[in-house]
Model the fold of this input.
Amino acid sequence: MSENSHDGMKKCTKCGEWKPATAEFFNRDKARTDGLRSLCIECVREYYQENKDRFLERLSEYRQKNKDRVREYNREYRQKNKEEIAEYQREYYQENKDRFLERLSEYRQTPVGRLSESIYRLRRKTGATIYVRDMTDEEKETLANQYVAIRTLEKTEKELLAASGKKRCSKCDRVLDYDCFHKSNDGYAGLNAYCKACDAKYNRKYRQQNKYKIKEYSREYYEKNKDYYREYNRKHRQNKKNKK
Done:
């Protein structure tokens, strides 16, 4: 035993207090003989707060100089700890839901936030591996300004097309009359983003790839709403009968 530890207790070399030699009071350190750091957690936290700016600056410099290494490490870590990360994120979201949604809403109003959301949609659509977190602050600012300029032009184009009863399909990129789009409460001008032709093509492909899923969903939905369907069919048969 050393002079700073005995009988399951350990002395913090900064504050001088004796505390239980456990991970609850001291961070783990494999390089130490007892596997614990010499400073207690409270002192480490206090030291970090006092030197926060310096730590963040050094971390930022390291990430800029070792982009590929950091990206690869993060990718491997997320892959190895997928379930733990997902569970932690679920718990954190539930505990901080209101604060999280408020900050997310504020972030989405910023140029970088709108850029990040656009890149997220691009990743889902094309499988690209571009992330805002891998960009420098200068790259973020440049792209964000370009994004705002492009979105402004797109908005102007939408308004000009709407004035003549036309809309651009976000799938095939053709400019078509309003009659070529299905109605949608969520879409611009009350219309779907895809034209009727692209929408039909997408639905055919989805039904083809999800046959069993759709069949199972339809079966479950019918079981839950049996009475409604029976009443609907009864009224339908009665109406047909009255028309004869």
Notes: The two ends are 101 Å apart (CA to CA). The mean pLDDT is 84. Residues 210-243 form one domain. Strands lie at 5-6, 9-11, 18-20, 26-28, 36-40, 166-168, 175-177, 181-183, 191-195.
